[in-house]
């Protein structure tokens, strides 16, 4: 049965005005499971007009009530977790347990955004003249254009919906055409919970056509994007031409530093689970493994054990530990990175090839003897490849760890408190995990340094990117 994934515009679930659409594939089989509608400029104009009206209606809802509506939507997601998780797995490939965890985290983001909405507060102070009162008001920034990716299709959209709707903004979201179902499910929950129909639109289509139309549109006041650095730069440049603020969560290439005082097997256990989760398709995923020489052989041996024993399969199988890559492009990217490293002298200790002839499965891969010139050490891999880099000189290791344009996340494994502090302080990254893998929880702000992004999402600051202030002087 082929599923039709529609546009959602002003409360109407419908096909695009041109009736164009594209296939949605199951990455475990490569088979078509649905068709997603494409929006035209006519559809986008309708969404923009509606969003302007929806902004007026939604910002008039008092923050306390907005908070209750977002909490209601979160509860609706939780109550429908089984169905939504199956949708995520069939479209994206991740194991069903990971899909359920994503639904839960999405609900938590909506709930957190609602809780912070209830804390919106203006402030006042006395002017320099006793007769003068100064008021600082907080207002929603306006209509938000949001662009979200396929690797965590619901959770990464939920962050943006939580902040924008919590602040009182309306939102037009363009999710990935490869994973449309989960954001549509979230829109359904939000509308059923009481968000006005014109405050939410979901559109699909050719990414550059959609972004080129929405970003300069006069109705749009704010752009938020999660994705790669090259695309983020293009969107930020387009926003800059019309002086619109952006929030960008962009790519990562996380160093994981494993020091010689830790148990190398335990460190490998933690990092293998982190690396192979979602088949390595996580911006926060560890991607460059700097291991102190005195434990590198033991660490490598344990990581190879994990790569060999990890159970791969269709994410709908509850026994699967790792599903397929999300699409054929990722398989080709893995082949290119492995072939490049091999040509430059690296040894593929395990893996390094596609698995089967059905779907987009790629073997968990461990590389050793990887030269610094290998592309895998410079380009975000976004897949299940582990390059292990023994080190003896901490200063030289830090030079390599900090030497890229990426600054999203990094990891340190050491039991030495002084070394923890020294390495944590030396790493030029917005997020650092010490003896653990970091996931983005709603209560913490996450953002990249350097070219890995601009601004943060989550935390006490979750509404701030979607707010503007007004200074009023009263006599």
| Count of runs of 4 or more consecutive helical residues | 13
Give the strand order of the largest sheet, numbering strands 1, 2, ... along the chain: 15-18-19-14-13-20-21
Global Rg = 23 Å
Structural class: alpha/beta
Mean pLDDT: 97
CATH superfamily of the largest domain: Aldehyde Dehydrogenase, Chain A, domain 1
CATH architecture of the largest domain: 3-Layer(aba) Sandwich
CATH class of the largest domain: Alpha Beta
Question: How many domains?
Answer: 2
Q: pLDDT under 50 segments (min length 5)?
A: none
The CATH topology of the largest domain, please?
A: Aldehyde Dehydrogenase, Chain A, domain 1
Label the overall shape. globular
Structure description:
By secondary structure, the protein is of the alpha/beta class. It has 2 domains: 3-250 and 450-474, Aldehyde Dehydrogenase, Chain A, domain 1; 254-434, Aldehyde Dehydrogenase, Chain A, domain 2 (3-Layer(aba) Sandwich), CATH 3.40.309. It contains 13 helices and 23 strands. It has helices spanning 41-59, 63-79, 81-92, 96-117, 155-167, 181-193, 207-214, 229-241, 264-276, 293-309, 328-343, 394-401, 417-426, and strands at residues 3-5, 7-9, 12-14, 21-26, 31-37, 123-126, 133-140, 143-147, 171-174, 200-202, 220-226, 246-249, 254-258, 286-292, 347-350, 354-355, 361-362, 365-368, 385-391, 409-413, 431-434, 453-454, 467-474. The protein has a 7-stranded mixed β-sheet with strand order 15-18-19-14-13-20-21, with helices on both faces. The chain is globular. The termini are far apart. The mean pLDDT is 97.
